[in-house]
Amino acid sequence: xxxxxxxxxxxxxxxxxxxxxxxxxxxxxxxxxxxxxxxxxxxxxxxxxxxxxxxxxxxxxxxxxxxxxxxxxxxxxxxxxxxxxxxxxxxxxxxxxxxxxxxxxxxxxxxxxxxxxxxxxxxxxxxxxxxxxxxxxxxxxxxxxxxxxxxxxxxxxxxxxxxxxxxxxxxxxxxxxxxxxxxxxxxxxxxxxxxxxxxxxxxxxxxxxxxxxxxxxxxxxxxxxxxxxxxxxxxxxxxxxxxxxxxxxxxxxxxxxxxxxxxxxxxxxxxxxxxxxxxxxxxxxxxxxxxxxxxxxxxxxxxxxxxxxxxxxxxxxxxxxxxxxxxxxxxxxxxxxxxxxxxxxxxxxxxxxxxxxxxxxxxxxxxxxxxxxxxxxxxxxxxxxxxxxxxxxxxxxxxxxxxxxxxxxxxxxxxxxxxxxxxxxxxxxxxxxxxx
Length: 436
Description:
It contains 20 helices and no strands. The chain is an all-alpha fold. It has one domain. Helix 4 runs parallel beside helix 6, helix 4 runs antiparallel to helix 13 and helix 9 packs parallel to helix 17.
């Protein structure tokens, strides 16, 4: 097994120091209001990429460009970028009034004290059906923001509930990239992996639901007045949610939302045709930072992988964790480390698959359990890292509607990823594996 090159991980360390270190310094030491917003994440990743380019002088710069191009051209990265663009256009078309109409309509149907719990459940169902957490967060976050404004519930709590529900579906869905990658890599049936996963995810989801209800039931919403809303503006969201629940491809779902939203705003005279095109452009432009992060991360990871950084990480994990339970925990931390490095849970699973397969054979772990651990831990980390696509899309969706919220305000409200970690550790160290 290759020992790799630990120094190749330096760009990742540089990014973490710049983004997290300076953000904490500005926010909590220097007491600068909205300190984390003073750290442009794109600039931090550009500096990290520059460090990666200066490393390994034996490799020509033209060769490094080719390596980066292969990383950026990965299918998962291209898919993610296209989802970002289409999602931005959808938000631009339906706009703030559409999300508010959905929120007010929901609040007119259910008691306001249950609104946040409903957001979590809806996000979980949609993500399970669509197989994409990013697509789900794009669709539900505007509704969550509007519900927060109307009901008075904390916006980070509402957005955190959306992200948590979306990661639940990402972990369990049969059509999720993470499920496919984990099952193919470990050589197990999806139904077997689902059974293993369900026993971990369901207790965490139920505990999350109870916690959300406990935190929101005491909030006084009796005097809340529901503003007027236009029911026809709800139609694009209803079509999108139905499409997601029945499992239609996310690209088709978003296209239906864009077309129906465009038809409605034009027919009702809310937007002129020229203004509609402008709104589409603005929505797509709003995803610029998120798209650039995806591109820069993939380029950095391609160089780190080429220099042997990930080999070093794999070697460390394999050498430290011994025994069957240690092997399971090692697999989880392995894919978690890969996710921190790549900010993409599917890519993290693909990279971790070979060594996890070897570890499962060494430690006597069944393929279905190994696949379950890889998928679960990748979702735990992906749902919590402040620079992951899920978090960035949620923040961007809120900003598109005119509200600013920081990743570090949302993090304490990510109850599901935290409880999923607790459930996973119990699954590893307490619950024995069923033997055939």
